[in-house]
Design a protein that fits this description.
By secondary structure, the chain is mainly alpha-helical. The protein is built from 14 helices and four strands. The chain is elongated and about 75 Å long.
Length: 289
Amino acid sequence: LAQVVPFGCRALRRSELVGRACAFRVSGTMGDTSEPDRLKQAFRAVDRQGTGFFARNDLAKVFRELEEWSQDDLDDLFDAVDPQKTGKVNYTALINYIFATDDVDEAGGEEDSDDDDADAVAMLQQCAELNLDLEQKVKPDTWAKIMGFLDVDASEAESMYSFVAQEVQARGQNVTYGIPLREFLDDLEITAKDQESIAALDAAVDAVAVGKVAPATQHTANITASSLAVELRKKDLPVSKAWELLDSSQSVSTTGKAAIRSMFGADRAGLASFVERCMRSPPVLPSSA
């Protein structure tokens, strides 16, 4: 642990105030792994039991050995990610707190900056309690699956992802390996006070992580696959051509195409198998489909 913490201490020392560590802003990336990600990897290497937590007392001892920390400063830091004072600190939440982006409105002045800091801390506290990692990166297909559980159709999810990706790239950051969840909060209009939406996002992320598909996305994909099956039969094409037909078909909606991409990503064989199952045993669809 003592080998890992100095890196975090340097990051904290660069922040304007220890009590407001979220004011530290990370700029740029180092290869394909950001500074917070590298620190998380280092902590995981030390966390041999894989619990995700370190005792507050152990962390405090190491922090004091490396820097001059008052008890109040340490309490402020650890309380931000352990508001219930359990005596254990989730190091993912701690790193997220340290490296949280703080967009300062220059025209708004210091008062607006303080409000932004308070909102950022409140958001991180709630996410820490849910074990929701806002720094985890998601790719387009994963994002569409998450949005399906929030009743956002796949085509709208694609548009949102594209818009946020452009914003992130404009700041000089690489999106090849995905975009951190925190980048989507503004577009989702989720604030620290919106506890239900934060909980819904957490539930959606967890559902996708275990391979679940939102009912609405599955329903749209069923309709699309059935439509592809009909076209393949009419054109006497093998199911292996399902992906090419998906791209060229005029009868498949944009939402339908997005739903298929959400479920299968670039897995052409997976789509072919799905369409073949629909041919053998068509899914039950409403009459309006």
